[in-house]
Design goal:
The structure is a homodimer.
Chain A lengths: L1 E7 L5 H13 L9 E7 L3 E3 L4 E3 L4 H6 L2 E4 L11 H12 L3 E4 L3 H7 L7 E2 L6 H7 L4 E2 L5 E3 L3 E4 L4 H26 L27 H9 L7 H8 L3 H12 L3 H19 L4 H7 L5 H12 L3 H8 L9
Parallel strand pairs in A: 1-2, 1-5, 5-6, 6-10, 7-8
Antiparallel strand pairs in A: 3-4, 9-10
Helix pairs in contact in A: 1-6
Chain lengths: 320, 320
Amino acid sequence: MHTVAVLALDGVVPFDLSTPIEVFTRVRLPGGEPAYRVLICGATPTVDAGAFTLQAPFGLDAVADADTVILPGCADGAAPVPDEVLDALRRAHAGGARLASICSGAFILAATGLLDGLRATTHWAGAAALAARHPEVDVDPDVLYVDNGRLLTSAGAAAGLDLCLHLIRRDHGSAVAADAARLSVMPLEREGGQAQFIVHEQPPAPRGSALEPVLRWMEDNCAHDLSLDRIAARAGMSTRTLNRRFREQTGTTPLRWLQLTRIRRAQHLLEATDHPVDRIAARVGFGSPTAFRDRFKRVVGTNPHAYRSAFRRPAQSTPA
Amino acid sequence: MHTVAVLALDGVVPFDLSTPIEVFTRVRLPGGEPAYRVLICGATPTVDAGAFTLQAPFGLDAVADADTVILPGCADGAAPVPDEVLDALRRAHAGGARLASICSGAFILAATGLLDGLRATTHWAGAAALAARHPEVDVDPDVLYVDNGRLLTSAGAAAGLDLCLHLIRRDHGSAVAADAARLSVMPLEREGGQAQFIVHEQPPAPRGSALEPVLRWMEDNCAHDLSLDRIAARAGMSTRTLNRRFREQTGTTPLRWLQLTRIRRAQHLLEATDHPVDRIAARVGFGSPTAFRDRFKRVVGTNPHAYRSAFRRPAQSTPA
């Protein structure tokens, strides 16, 4: 039987720890027998999982022997990983096991060095930190998971379900995976990746900085046609200086900053109003509904209608 | 602060236990402060959670004092619930708390008697058992959750996320709930309910029983127009006898059995082939594509295209 070791380090996120238990232990082969054996493995016998502590029945030796090792996220993604853990993971990989991380578990996997030069993902809120800490890893925050064969990473929280179902499909085909998905009350395949869940906060210019007034003016006027020349004129700078200041203070260009502001405002209107999509496109400054749909799809990973369905207000108030 | 007590009984399903921790502890109010305090409460200090054991930091007194009590499922839904647990739950409810179950946690909630006369749901695979055990409860297996105000129940596994997000929306509005949903990488609202995940297994007639040959014939010929008269003729019975035998041996009528067979076969074709929906409708015996779409939507809770997106084969093989 295929053995799945789930690594429980101090600070382990209970949800990420539980996801592989939930998905893998329910899988039955066509003959009815279980397809996987799931072992919770601690580096220490007692593990602090935040809201509770747990006893891990297995240790790091089971990690090194497993067919698949799942790395759940830890509350503190930046916590140093003990050397014996990294050793066990490298040994497992060298022995042919596949390693798959959920959420901030990507930090543990990256610490082994095995992800260097490969694409990876993690929770969208942690993607920038992962990229900064591991510049050799090509971090993509837009997808639900990345499959490099024997090294997989998934996005945050519920994306761990997508990852586990994907592994089942790889191991046993679509029919078995679809049954596992039905038992987990999750689709086997979700549209739109992680991009649709990302909150596109604008990096605010430091209060009192030179850019602050023009950023506020851009937000207030994003419904209008703001060219780079017009923004520069408002800021009283050359376009070249404006671009440099933007790069320094927000990490992006004025027009990209403006686009994200418009998309974020459109997301809010899709969530909070019943305005037709075309009216929203105009209100956030897109000249054509088609340009709006294209850009929205590129940034959010899904179309405005699907986004509204996922994040809309309830159709009616719930009974009290 | 709003206190959420999560009840951890022996046999607790780790995923159901972790879902409220994951969702509620991440919620921040617009000012930045946490909105909920989550307490894991055991009836005993050490709790057997299957793949691991855990220490619950709180006891049943915290259940009775909570604003919201979450009842995760237990591996054995039929396990008797200790009296002191039922007492704590009834006391919490009498004191104004709301009680919400995830998956087979509905069995615990029903055991309090508080669900009598109310609508409720649970994991689709356990719905018939819940209805049989608690005939006073109106069990609906098709929805992701049921909100009776202070008594809520949700479907299996991932539907617990839907329930918790729903509670956050009730408490703090759509914007806060949408942010919690983004952090959980889940939509705030999912289309199609639990119905789309249900496996519509036909209750097989006992091997060698009078109905077995005619059931097999119906399956093999479901693409044809099978009237009740035609089925009865094939079975060599009057339609009245056929109806009675069906009721005894399958719990349903011949035509409803046939419809479910057709829908199940259509689901399989949507998952495993690229045939156009209209061709599938014809292949499983629906005279018109519209009739097929209507019936599919009624049984599965979503339309054939959406179903295919959720459970389709991968577009291409994954890198090995």
